[in-house]
Write a structure and sequence with these properties.
This protein has 357 residues and is of the alpha+beta class. It contains eleven helices and seven strands. About 15% of the residues have low confidence.
């Protein structure tokens, strides 16, 4: 019985040349086998599209149409002219080896056990066979043509997308610069108030809501140290009763890390309360793991834990009785966490500035 080679590219990956060997009396018998057992040939047929105006693949037509073996062979043959890199050609094998070509062997015989043996991984062993150099050359030409044609198409699409992204990126950057400038104008005025006495913010309803949310978050945080324990109404805080103003000066935003993937920023503040003063560096926005695309405040329990840790270093110097120092420190934690996030105005687009598009 003659041996036929179904020559085709690696349709899924397009990285290897492939050949399916079939022992049959003729190409018609091969087509009959394909129609009788289409699922066995799915990998070979499902991405082949004949050049006849019909949008359906050969695999889809085998599933839905009543094709004759002759019609199926005609459809397969039409795929060659339009898509040479996805070609399928059925021709006799008349040479002696299949060097450097991936081979799948399928057997068709009147004895079903032959086919079952091949599918079980124990196909009959043939002497080494190869395709002629001209056949391998055809496959290489088809593969090269595919890479050149599809590569040009994808490169054009990617360049168009890149230009659109760059244009939109520049437009958003400009709008963000205007947004940041407006924020800075208002923050300059707030700096004046905070430098005089930041306790004026204690009576604001928005700050009271913030305190409530921080108390809720602290209660839910497992292992939070130290636990946040302050009065829910800031107007009742010990901080408000002190004779000294709470002065915040030299407020500025910094980014310690120069690594573009680390988007964590800090607000630095010089805090004074009577004769007591301390420099604080409070984390705001961003993270060590990437960029959070959000312009809303990003208050977290980690922020007030960090502020608490810094204040503890100088806790004994607070101008209040020792038994009240811890409570006063926690009130300061809430107020400073809230105010620091107000100054988190580093634009998201600006943080993306180091990305190469």
């Amino acid at each position: 019985m003659p041996l036929y080679a179904i020559l085709h590219s690696d349709i899924e990956g397009l990285h290897d040349k492939s050949c399916t060997l079939v022992q049959a009396t003729s190409p018609i018998e091969i087509a009959q086998q394909m129609l009788a057992h289409p699922e066995q040939w799915q990998a070979l047929l499902y991405q082949l599209y004949p050049d006849d105006g019909d949008p359906h693949s050969v695999w889809q037509r085998v599933q839905s149409d009543e094709l004759t073996p002759e019609a199926l062979l005609a459809l397969i043959d039409q795929t060659y002219s339009d898509e040479p890199a996805e070609m399928v050609r059925i021709q006799p094998v008349q040479v002696q080896s299949l060097n450097q070509v991936k081979v799948e062997t399928r057997w068709m015989s009147s004895d079903p056990s032959d086919y079952l043996d091949s599918m079980s991984g124990n196909p009959p062993v043939l002497p080494a066979q190869t395709l002629s150099s001209s056949t391998i050359g055809e496959l290489m030409v088809a593969y090269t043509q595919l890479r050149r044609r599809k590569g040009r198409e994808l490169s054009t699409q990617l360049n168009q997308m890149r230009q659109q992204v760059v244009t939109e990126f520049a437009a958003i950057r400009q709008r963000e610069l205007e947004f940041t400038a407006l924020q800075e104008t208002l923050l300059d005025q707030l700096r004046t108030h905070f430098a005089f006495d930041a306790r004026s913010i204690l009576s604001m309803p928005e700050f009271e809501r913030f305190v409530h949310s921080m108390l809720m978050a602290g209660a839910e945080e497992v292992g939070a140290t130290p636990p946040l324990q302050v009065a829910q109404k800031p107007v009742e805080w010990v901080l408000k009763t002190l004779p000294h103003p709470l002065q915040l000066q030299n407020i500025q935003t910094t980014k310690p890390s120069k690594e573009p993937e680390i988007t964590e920023f800090f607000v630095e503040i010089q805090v004074s309360l009577g004769d007591w003063f301390q420099f604080l560096s409070i984390p705001v926005g961003g993270s060590k793991d990437g960029l959070s695309v959000c312009y809303q405040p990003l208050y977290t329990t980690q922020q007030w834990i960090e502020v608490s840790y810094q204040l503890q270093k100088n806790l004994a110097q607070l101008p209040i009785a020792p038994d009240l120092q811890l409570g006063l420190a926690q009130e300061l934690v809430c107020l400073l966490t809230y105010i620091s996030e107000l100054f988190n105005v580093v634009g998201i687009v600006d943080r993306l500035g180091n990305l190469r598009i």
